[in-house]
Amino acid sequence: MGGRALTSSGETLFATTERLILRKPRPEDLEPLIVSWSDPEMTRFTGLRTDVRSFVAQMIADAQAKDPGAPDSATPWYQFIVERRSDGAMIGDLGVGFGLPGERQVELGYRIHPEAQGRGYAREAVAALISYLVENHSIHRFVGIAASGNERSKRLLTTLGFRHEGNFRRSFLCHGEWLDDDYFALLAEEWRAGETARGDREPAREGRS
Ligand SMILES: CC(C)(COP(=O)(O)OP(=O)(O)OC[C@H]1O[C@@H](n2cnc3c(N)ncnc32)[C@H](O)[C@@H]1OP(=O)(O)O)[C@@H](O)C(=O)NCCC(=O)NCCS
Questions:
Q1: Using CA positions, which residue lies closest to atom 35 of ligand 1?
Q2: Phi and psi at residue 39, in whole multiples of 5°?
Q3: Are 33 and 56 in contact (CB under 8 A)?
Q4: Mutation pick for ligand 1 pocket among 91, 148, 152 (CB with most ligand atoms within 8 Å)
Q5: Is the N or C terminus of the chain more exposed, i.e. has fewer CB atoms within 10 Å?
Q6: CA 159 to ligand 1 center in whole angstroms
Q7: Quick one: which of 106, 131, 123 has its CA closest to 184?
Q8: Ligand 1 atom nearest to 124, measured from its CA
Q9: From the CB of 159, is ligand 1 less than 6 Å away?
């Protein structure tokens, strides 16, 4: 897993894992993202945008024009594309709300397309994203908000080491229904401690290089 890098084609890669890369959105991501952001199962607990095509087109244009966490941006959100290395397929997208709810904090969103779910891709992608944000943006605290009925999202956050910090009653209007929201958070220091415990980081080299 590495920090930000450029490919030979000049494309920005924010992180790479064994199976995935996190990259900037491209114009050709438009149609598959529209399908994904319109899918009833994918939007069951997130709600549906009124004009999905405009929303996704704006999201791509915005992410192409700026770097993650750029100050003075029209929106605090930056969308990362999750691409599978074995076949180059775009299998999901991750949203990062910089400065939410405060300085050096981010709110995370994550979506893995239905045909790629259940294979550990969400865990692998979000873990890579957290490490990238700790190392490159000095993020101190990560927030995940899941509708209480979104069991897969809550399980993902718990598996990654997030702590359940609260339940907000009927706080999210989704498809015309008021849903409860569960709030989760993870501190960078907790993430680093978990990495060490899991052995994610390469051991420090002995001697001088
Ligand atoms: C939430 C969401 C991203 C989770 O994606 P996912 O594909 O189910 O997540 P993962 O594949 O990482 O984990 C799912 C299961 O696969 C298992 N798995 C299978 N193969 C695996 C592998 N090779 N490595 C690790 N885990 C693996 C995991 O253990 C996990 O099982 P568990 O939940 O019983 O522990 C996905 O359901 C989604 O996109 N939902 C719609 C959008 C949404 O609601 N987003 C959240 C808004 S808050």
A1: 155
A2: -65, 125
A3: yes
A4: 152
A5: C
A6: 10
A7: 106
A8: 12
A9: yes
pLDDT tens digits, the chain, 209 residues: what are they? 445 666 656 678 999 999 999 999 999 999 999 999 999 999 999 999 999 999 999 999 999 999 999 988 889 999 999 999 999 999 999 999 999 999 999 999 999 999 999 999 999 999 999 999 999 999 999 999 999 999 999 999 999 999 999 999 999 999 999 999 999 999 999 999 998 888 776 544 444 43
Instruction: Say how far apart CA 203 and CA 171 lie, in whole Å.
Output: 44
Out of 3.40.50.880, 2.120.10.30, 3.40.630.30, 3.40.630.10, the CATH code matching 5-198 is 3.40.630.30
pTM score, whole prediction: 0.93
Based on its alpha-carbon atoms, the radius of gyration of the chain, rounded to whole angstroms, reads: 17
